[in-house]
Amino acid sequence: xxxxxxxxxxxxxxxxxxxxxxxxxxxxxxxxxxxxxxxxxxxxxxxxxxxxxxxxxxxxxxxxxxxxxxxxxxxxxxxxxxxxxxxxxxxxxxxxxxxxxxxxxxxxxxxxxxxxxxxxxxxxxxxxxxxxxxxxxxxxxxxxxxxxxxxxxxxxxxxxxxxxxxxxxxxxxxxxxxxxxxxxxxxxxxxxxxxxxxxxxxxxxxxxxxxxxxxxxxxxxxxxxxxxxxxxxxxxxxxxxxxxxxxxxxxxxxxxxxxxxxxxxxxxxxx
Length: 271
Fold this sequence. Notes:
There is one protein chain. By secondary structure, the chain is mostly helical. It has one domain (about 60-270): ABC transporter involved in vitamin B12 uptake, BtuC (Orthogonal Bundle), CATH 1.10.3470.10. About 75% of the residues lie in helices and about 0% in strands. The protein is built from 12 helices and no strands. Helix 4 crosses helix 11. The protein is flat. The relative contact order is 0.16. The model has no long low-confidence stretch (mean pLDDT about 85).
């Protein structure tokens, strides 16, 4: 038994090492490739040089922060998707399909279009919107307990309603849509070190909470009866896991807009 565990641990460690190496190679490639291509030698020379140059400015101020932001957003959405798939016991659940991202996006869009003076507080409002969407989903799904199928149906309904509200908001404020459309479509364009700092603060907290929820998430994957027999408070843990997923989704939406698909497909790739 111990030998099998050691082999399994070695296999997981090897896969993680290979993936980290691939991530590093892709990051280096991203620094070199763009509208202005540079060789690795040029990039290293510019980075370690004391003199300012166009290469150093582009790499340090444009490409590097976006790469770091993409890694933070990808990890946050992946963790959120994995948690929600455990809560719903459905492989198609993710922050985008059940309304969590829509709640965060709706709150952020409302602030950007109607209360632009509060734009600095978009992350907080995004989390509030995601949390409110979760509350509405659980309220609609509650019937002597929470059933995963009802949660998904409620989430799809909330997603549709919030999508209609966003469309109405955009029609009523068509003169102020320049920045909001990019936000709604999700983009890393124009993002810099300020957004990296915001995302790093929220993502680090959310990812730590997600790792602490691993045992509960695995128990829920086994089924409600099995989880109860293991001493897991099913309803409470579903609410807690959903709250962590909402926090992670809101963190990504607030800095990069509505980015979908990552939270759906990455947990499957990891499995």
